[in-house]
Amino acid sequence: MKILVTGGAGFIGSNFIYYELEQHPEDEIICLDALTYAGHLKTLAKAMANPRFEFIKGDIADCEFVDKLFKREQLDIVVNFAAESHVDRSILEPEIFLKTNVMGTGVLMNACCKYGINRYHQVSTDEVYGDLPLDRLDLLFTEESSLHASSPYSASKASADLLVLAYHRTYDLPVSISRCSNNYGPYHFPEKLIPLMIVNALNNKPLPVYGKGENVRDWLYVTDHCKAIDLIIHNGKVGEIYNIGGHNEMRNIDIVKLICRELGKPESLITYVTDRKGHDMRYAIDPTKIHSELGWLPETKFADGIRKTIKWYLENRSWWENIIVRN
Ligand code: NAD
Question: Where residue 224 sits, what CATH number does that domain have?
Fold first, then answer.
């Protein structure tokens, strides 16, 4: 099989490429990535040495470029990770989120329709459902929950999901969608909560926490997400949405304090900053469907995953120091 992974120089896409190269020694992987501020070739250094891997620099929203690529490569599967992914940036500069996340998805699907594909998989997010109240722990997002996006980021992802489902209905394009909760692990860009806190703590810099830090996220180790996508593209039903989450809800402030403890840093580094506009309070996923249909279950417990992640940042200083300097 020839698999196109878009956005593979970013956090989850790169972890997915490493997972696929290891799990499917018969497959070839092409990574298409525009190398925005969030994408780094260094992240793919180990894959570059593999003859079954090829990197191509390009923009998923560039119709002509994408058309030529699809014509030349005769792809079997497309997994679209390419996106602008940071909520704070979407509040400051929404336009680029519409271009990449919505228009880019449309360009990829047009090429899939024109040249044919066995599966187009859209990597979406639980943020399309909006948020849940802190005092209703009984409520979880299911695949039937309505779309209530709060930020330009989540609205652009929800729009892309609607487009993907419409291409399935209208053109019979064999699509699937996954909506995952917050990921953590290696190669996570240090603007997101967990890597930002780890690198700031290591540099003895302030640890900025929004509001009172009471916002709750459902954290999943990135390899568990990659495994779920792999199951969906091979065994998941066409036209379906699968929620992915680890039943691991934690308050932001508790994560930050845990990182301080693990690194032996004082909690006095924590600084409370003005809350994000429209900040979602709580995300919580019901992953019953992917468990019952595809047998997926998360394998990494948070206590182990966060230690592995911290260890990775300690052992890969040059990766993140280089990124901090560039940005
Ligand atoms: P990321 O920001 O780390 O990586 C995004 C990658 O996409 C980068 O390599 C960037 O260069 C590339 N890219 C951006 N615009 C592009 C364009 N126009 N053409 C080609 N490449 C482009 O993001 P991530 O955290 O790895 O997220 C990947 C996907 O997973 C996104 O679609 C995101 O919405 C989704 N998701 C993320 C999380 C999470 O916790 N990080 C959770 C659920 C879903």
Answer: 3.40.50.720
